[in-house]
Amino acid sequence: MSSPFQGPLPTYIVSPLAVPFFGSHRNQSSLSRHSTNHVFRVCRNRHATATFGFKSYNWSCCQSDKVNTFVEVQQLLDKTPIYLIGMMGSGKSTVGQYLATKLNYSFLDTDQLIESVQQKKISEIFEQCGENKFREWESAILSKIQPCLGYVIATGGGIVLKDSNWSHLRNGIVVFLDVSISTIMKRLLNDTTRPLLQGADPQKRLKEIRSKRLPLYLRADIHIQLNDFRMEQEFTEEQWTALITQRLMEFLTTTTTTTKRS
Ligand SMILES: Nc1ncnc2c1ncn2[C@@H]1O[C@H](COP(=O)(O)OP(=O)(O)OP(=O)(O)O)[C@@H](O)[C@H]1O
Ligand SMILES: O=C(O)C1=C[C@@H](O)[C@@H](O)[C@H](O)C1
Fold first, then answer.
1. Residue 4, in any domain of the structure
2. In this structure, is residue 102 part of a structural domain?
3. CA-based Rg of the chain, rounded to a whole angstrom?
4. ipTM greater than cut 0.95
5. Which pTM was predicted?
């Protein structure tokens, strides 16, 4: 595979690379990971889940507990990276930046890194180099940034396609932002930057892509689906962030278990 890293790396790529590998030094109150058998053991004993139970969640309760929740989640996370996955237009970049700020994390976006390193827009890369080359560069970027403690990482919509990418994603907590096709269509109406949607029938294409990828997206640790709330209007970035934080809290505090991750 040819490397996308030609010449000096931008400083925001270099700094995360200096971060030591995540895992072995971590203590019992956070996450420990055994990369060989893909077992992810989470020690979860810090919280009463009932307080933040998914089903009983409501926004007024969230408002009063919000500050404490962000602090608690930060402590429990102990800088564990958070990878956002999902279809193009699901809001990974938009929500990811907001989430990072709230958790006192930094933010990276694999699409932006590829564009920055290649000095080309994604649409130009697809056109001039082809999708396969883009996927190679995407994997290379992911492997370079994978030890990023304290980062929220918005990934490209197709990152889930390669099995080898999952070995990197598994270094953190993987969150699937699941947004309906109609919402994506509304958001990306007239968008010209997503090369896979430039054909005659973008809605049909989105449906095809989603049904092919859904089993892969569902490998995430946390699945957040807008329809769970039967709401028709869009969630704001702030609401998404509160929701993700609440689901992270649940993930990190549920009774101690050993969970198989495929
Ligand atoms: N919660 C939201 N409410 C309304 N619009 C949103 C929301 N989140 C994102 N958007 C809009 O949807 C579009 C796509 O969002 P964004 O680029 O964050 O998606 P993405 O998942 O990172 O997409 P890609 O994988 O293609 O990079 C943007 O125009 C953004 O402003
Ligand atoms: O879903 C996809 O395959 C893509 C999503 C975007 O994030 C970009 O990575 C690119 O447009 C391809």
1. no
2. yes
3. 18
4. yes
5. 0.79
